[in-house]
Amino acid sequence: MAAENSSSGSPFWDNFCIPSHILVPDSKVQTVAHIPVCPVLVFVNSKSGGQLGVNLLVTYRALLNENQVFDLGQESPDKVLSRIYTNLEKLKLEGNEPAARIQETLKIIVAGGDGTAGWLLGVVSDLKLPHPPAIATVPLGTGNNLPFAFGWGKKNPGTDRQSVEAFLEQVMKAEEMKIDSWHILMRMRAPREGSFDPIAPLELPHSLHAFGRVSSSDELNMEGCHTFRGGFWNYFSMGMDAQVSYAFHSERNSHPEKFKNQLVNQSTYMKLVGTQGWFFSSLFQSNSKNIAQLAKVKIMNREGQWQHLHIPHSIKSIICLNLPSFSGGLNPWGTTRRSKGDFTPPYVDDGLIEVVGFRDAWHGLLLLAPSGHGTRLAQAQRIHFEFHKGATDHTYMRIDGEPWKQPLPTDNDTVVVEISHLRQVKVLATHDCKSRSIHRPLITGNHDTQEDDSPEEESIPEGEEWRKFGAADTFKIPDEVDIARFS
């Protein structure tokens, strides 16, 4: 058992430091002179951000009780949280007041890329913890869309004592905000003979791969089909943007030594935008890449009715967006502070997902303008994509930054992707938060007052069942998966 941190006794660090008997089951119960007002558990992906993850791990362990700081490369968060919360319940039954207070005020800090942050969100969502902790995200990845959406920035942070202290001060002041999560189900016809697996397991995002194929006893299973299920917090996208992301991830997996810092990663990504033809896709790519050619799309509107979604033939990328941060902080839906036509302002906790399309990368550059946005298509409770035999045998899809190459039907079979609202989890938001809550629309200090008045271009209820997000007992990342891919 490790000793208490080297800064023990400092009034500032006492606000966060958790006694070892809370963290280590069956250890000697200590007399607690000061119950922390903002107790934190820190999870660090040591493979994120080049050396930054390792350095941050060292700093937190030096300043806090090292038993409250965890390397995600060594221990999975579901095991950590199950162990600690079981111990908290045991201590509470024994009348331990500090344990009860700490459980009520506990917070989580996760340092890594968007994949790492989504992993922790999924774990907390699945475990159904008493007083589930709110989560603050340290941006150690390339895009850092999740941290940026809640005011934690998108630049990789400093790892020295002063930087960590400044971050913890923000954690103390941050407000809790609930955000929606979204369930995704993907179903495709099993081959008539042989054992052909339609997608190599490691090609799938970790959330879908973690669920694996739905078991024969699962209520979502359909005879004669391969069925996958998973979840996301930020976005699902399909088309050219996912193709560029897939090329980037393939290059990084082949040559990891070239991707050691955020600036190099972003520069490489922009080069791929050009070489993959995203800038001139509307001129030189066939109509088989158009979303309208690839899929029939239905949405369930806010009244709970299914309806066909018209997608303009020029659209080559479609994004189903939950948070106002995409591809490094851009907002595809744009800024709206009042209802416009059929659309209401986007909130992260209203049970609706925004659907927006893009023609090419030039169209995407509109997002750099204060009131820029893509082609707004819908706000929906559920979305249903149905793919039939067409002019192409594959497309590209992406969940929260993790892309894969999706086979499409080559005969009379069908591939179905359906997205539906799952439930909510708590995050911590700073005064610079870009996201807005339906309960507290003005929670943020975001001063983007440019109202978008530009004309539009071509234009399961929660609680029915407990659908696992896939991060707790069903989420077992295989040993052969390197968590560096989550950064």
UniProtKB/TrEMBL annotation:
EC annotation from Swiss-Prot or TrEMBL: 2.7.1.107
Biased composition (Acidic residues): 450-463
Keyword Kinase applies: yes
Keyword terms of this UniProt record: ATP-binding, Kinase, Nucleotide-binding, Plant defense, Stress response, Transferase
DAGKc domain boundaries: 35-188
Residue numbers spanned by region Disordered: 439-471
Keyword Nucleotide-binding found: yes
InterPro entries: ATP-NAD_kinase_N, DGK, Diacylglycerol_kin_accessory, Diacylglycerol_kinase_cat_dom, NAD/diacylglycerol_kinase_sf
GO biological process, one term: defense response
GO MF annotation list: ATP binding; ATP-dependent diacylglycerol kinase activity
Coiled coil, from the record: none
Enzyme class, UniProt record, top EC level: transferase
Superkingdom in the source lineage: Eukaryota
GO cellular component: membrane
Swiss-Prot/TrEMBL catalytic activity: a 1,2-diacyl-sn-glycerol + ATP = a 1,2-diacyl-sn-glycero-3-phosphate + ADP + H(+)
PANTHER family noted in UniProt: DIACYLGLYCEROL KINASE, DIACYLGLYCEROL KINASE 5
Oligomer and partners: Monomer.
Family: Belongs to the eukaryotic diacylglycerol kinase family.
Function comment: Phosphorylates the second messenger diacylglycerol (DAG) to generate phosphatidic acid (PA), another important signaling molecule. PA is required for plant development and responses to abiotic stress and pathogen attack. May be involved in the accumulation of PA during cold stress.
Protein name: Diacylglycerol kinase
Organism: Rhodamnia argentea
